[in-house]
Amino acid sequence: MAIQNPTNGTYWSAMEKITYSIVSKAASMLFRPAISSMSLGRAWLHKLPNKLDQAQVHGFEGIEVFYEDLEYLAREERGITSNETPTPEAQIRAAYTIKKLCDERNLTIIGLQPFMHYEGLLDRAEHAQRIEKMKLWFKLAKILGTDIIQIPANFLPKEQITGDLEMVARDLQEVADLGLKEYPVIRFAYENLCWSTYFDTWEKAWEVVEKVDRPNFGMCLDTFNIAGRIYGDPASSTGKTPNADEDIKKSLERMVKTVDVKKVFYIQVVDAEKMRDPLIQGHAFYAVDQPARMSWSRNARLFAFEEPGYLPIMDVTRAFIEGLGYHGWVSMELFSRTMSEPGTEVPQEHARRAGASWRKIEQAIDSWKN
């Protein structure tokens, strides 16, 4: 029986099929593929059951539940047509539904994300409200069957947050200590975003993790957010920072020497398009109220090995896996303008692309070992 190569549609020889099988089994012993639910299509256009179907069909074992999907499902189940925030009871009901949908498809929920705009708030009344929201997220996480909540480094304007490490660490210690009291314990994966206001590199995020110093507080390492800050610059005519190649090389060398792999709770592997024109005023993706890297991220990420991707994301991935010795979940977290396109084929196409990307990542991992 002829079998197609899932990466390009050509037909494999018998030896190629055997080789691919061996490679896949070797990698799958240590690494499991996951995908973020919103990477299969935005919630206001694409229903979660179909997205989960496509994730299963294309070989994914894990799902990052994007809060947007839970929120839209909660509204749908309650017949809410406005954009009002669903009640805690509605969110809890939606979490049970998502857990059932994932169980039916043998999908493990690896995390709930993103718990945004938390640390360093100058408005302490707002901080107190976020703590109450976190307590609801504890309930949601337990229902979903996950022990990880992902916190992206804050990207609110400087007028609203502080970059003071002591205060930021205290805020994060507060939720970490609350998480330690839960059973099972809730873990927090802190992630630098390449446009975060203060903590926009992995080095700065690691400094936060060390300062927080709690066993349940670690990192999510994301190839795009690392390379997209150190190496990539969408506002530049070259698409790169001035000393991109040397800077990323030295940064990854520091990472391997510095980061404790036990603090890496999971990794995300994606690339991004190289902009044909600098992402500045006049560009289609330009937004006056957000940094260029944020606009780039929301519109133009790619799965690994896709064109016209150009970031050295496999060098970053190799640093995670060979350098740090990471093994565990590898998630495909895509943001793109294509996720907001209508049509039932959108989740299918994104899942297909992600699956093809994962198989190439597997092959790369195996080649490093050899």
UniProtKB/TrEMBL annotation:
Q: Report the leader peptide range.
A: none
Recorded hits in InterPro entries, A to Z, give: IolE/XylAMocC-like (IPR050312), Xyl_isomerase-like_sf (IPR036237), Xyl_isomerase-like_TIM-brl (IPR013022)
What is the protein's name according to its record? Answer: 3-dehydroshikimate dehydratase
Q: Name one Pfam family in it.
A: AP_endonuc_2
Q: Which residues form a coiled coil?
A: none
Domain Xylose isomerase-like TIM barrel, first and last residues per copy: 53-352
Give the encoding gene's name: qa-4_2
